[in-house]
Amino acid sequence: MDGMEHIVVQPPESVTWQVHLDRSMWIGGVRGLMLQALHPLAMRGVWQNSNFQEDPFGRLRRTADFVGRVTFGSPEEAGEIGRRVRGIHKALRIHDPDTGRTHRVDDPELLLWVHCAEVSSYLEVARRGGLGLTERQADRYLDEQRKSASYVGLHPDDVPGSCAEMDAYFKRVRPGLRVTEEAAATVRFLLWPRLPRELRLLSPGKPAYFPFGALCYYSLPDWARGMYRALPEVPRASVTAALKAFRLGMNALPENVHDHAFMPATRAMLRASRERLGAAGYDVGKGLRGLTDPRRRPKARAA
C-alpha cells in the first residue's frame, strides 16, 4: 500500500508479521537468551552491565519492546529506540577476566551474535511449532530482519539474510562458544527464575513455570544442549508436540488478554499501531494478528 512505510516499519504483508505475531515468540525469546549465553564475552556483557540475575523477565520484556517497535511501530518510534539502544551500548564496557582486556558492548561481532541467536530462535521455534512457512518465506524473514539489525548499529550487508547464510554463520562461530559459569547460571535462572517484584503475587504458581522453561531449553539446537547438559534428554517428537500444543493454546488467547504480558509502554505502542492501520483502511477488528489474513487488508485503489 502506498505510504505504508510511514505507518509501520514492517508491513502486515511481511513474513516478519507472521512470525512476530505468533505466540511461540515467548519460547523463542527465552531460547534466544539461552543460546546467546554460550558466547563468553556476550554473556559477561549481560552479567556485568544489567540486573539480569535479579530480573530475567525484565530483559525478555525489554527485548519484546524493541522487537515490537522495529516491527509494528512507526519509523519514528523505531528510530528513537534504535538511537537509545545504540547510545546505551556505546557507553558500556565488558571486562574479560580470561585475558584482562576490556571490550566495547557495541562491538559488531557481539551485536551480530545477539541478533542471530535471537532471530534464528524466533524463526525455528515458530516453524517447529507449526507455523507453515516455506523455505522461501523463511529466507525472506531473515532478509527482512537485516533492517531490524540496522537499528542496533549493524550494517545489513553484514547480517545473514537466508537460512543457508545463518547456518554458515553458526558453523563459523561455534568453535568459540562455551559454557562459562555465567552461562550455566543463566540457564538455571531461566529454568527457575526469580519473579520480579510486580509479579511476586504469582509465586504460589511458580512451579507451573518450570515446564515452560524446560520447553525453551529442549527447543535449543542439539549441539547447544550437548554443551549445557542441564537436563536429561527427551525424545525430539515429544518436544515438537509440546511446542505445537503451547503455540495453539497461546494463539487462542484474545489479543487484549495476551498483551498484558508486555510492558505498559509496549501496549501503548501496539494500540497506536492499530489506530494508524485502521485509519489507513485496514480492518483491525481482529487486532494486529487479524491483519495477517489477506482478506483484512485494504483493496488496491484503481488507477
UniProtKB/TrEMBL annotation:
It is an enzyme of class 1 (oxidoreductase). One of its GO terms (molecular function) is transferase activity. Keywords: Oxidoreductase, Transferase. The lineage of its organism: Bacteria, Bacillati, Actinomycetota, Actinomycetes, Streptosporangiales. It comes from Nonomuraea purpurea. It comes from the Bacteria. The keyword Disulfide bond does not apply. Its EC number is 1.-.-.-. This is Oxygenase MpaB family protein. Residues 17-239 form the ER-bound oxygenase mpaB/mpaB'/Rubber oxygenase catalytic domain.
